[in-house]
Input
Amino acid sequence: MNTIIFDLGGVLIDWNPDYVYDEIFDDPARKRFFYENICTSDWNEEQDAGRSLQAATDLLLAKHPDWETEIKAYYGRWREMLGGAIQETVDIFKELKEGNGHRFYALTNWSAETFPIALETFDFLHWFDGIVVSGVEKSRKPFPEFYQILLDRYDVSPSEAIFIDDNHRNVLAGRAMGMESIHFKSAAGLRQELGKLGVM
Output
């Protein structure tokens, strides 16, 4: 194994809209309704795949005018959804980086418009040899062509790569591409899995 590919959100970076919407909603059921019916994960993934934040917001405002304040908060207060680095995983990344000569890449579902905020915020993002951002490429995980962009751009052999992601759907897609893929659940678990592979 000569290449390690990290997902970012949920693995190295704590991003959670609850940091904003726990302040907005007093009623957990109302917040859940909002996530499941208005600012849904499917809606968010379209921004990850390249749709502009303005177009996404306008779409929901047209459909749900009664929720204007809540909808506008999604990107109006997006920076507040960044909870910080997941330091235990960053520490693993640092150990690996200082270790035995692997190449390191990131493959992330992330809006092209908000990713520059992450680059400004997290120094460790500059440790990577390359980062492939879904919003820039207009494709996203779990689509095979998105993984292929990274493999082709950086001349990565799938059989020589380890892919780490907190979304099991994306892990399965990584395995289908021929990569050793780890379902991230905790930094301790990741360290153990990397140990089994002889990387740590």
